[in-house]
Amino acid sequence: MTNHVSYSNALVSIAKEQARVVLSGGKGLQERLEFIFQNHLKFRPQNLILTAVANFELLKRHTLDIKPIESGMYLKLMLGGTVANEEVEDGGLNGPWIGPLNWFHCTYLAVIGLGFANGEELDTQGYNVDIPSPIYLYQEMIYYDGIYYGGWELQYV
Question: What is the pLDDT of residues 24-78, one digit of tens each?
């Protein structure tokens, strides 16, 4: 027998309970979350998954942890923190250099486009829980590789 709960309210209720169960698991939390996401992603088109992986690999090829020696324009990420809107001490984490770039494009602080000097291009889709972009804007920060950066600039080296 069911009470008079709408389907959308039931989804919210069950999702909250699932999140509570997973988050209370302690050790092995990441593995459980990865398992849940893998099962979720199985229902997405394969071309979207393969394109997402190619985008992550593309960005990694153009990312440097130290100041580049090759001249060109780079996106420099700064003031990083591991939690969105986290108050960072001592200026936060110093981020990577991305490039060299021919161009950088941002639309309505929602979508980032990068044109690399070798002709490759990356257009992000913004924040998306289903299939994430390797770099995107979240509120007023750039998310990249597990870090939220509150500062970024284009620098010519």
Answer: 777 778 888 888 888 888 888 888 888 888 999 999 999 999 999 999 999 999 9
What is the C-alpha to C-alpha distance for residues 124 and 127, in angstroms, rounded to an integer?
9
d(CA 47, CA 67) in angstroms, rounded, equals 35
95: exposed, middle or buried (Cβ count in 10 Å: 0-12, 13-18, 19+): buried
The CA distance from 144 to 45, in Å, is 24
Q: Break the chain into its structural domains and give their ranges.
A: 7-41, 46-156
DSSP 157: -
Q: Identify the residue whose tokens are 């804007």.
A: 137
CA dihedral 62, 84, 37, 65 (to 10 degrees): 20
Report the relative pairing of strands 147-156 and 121-123 from DSSP bridges: unpaired
Distance CA 143, CA 95 (A): 11
**Confidence (pTM):** 0.79
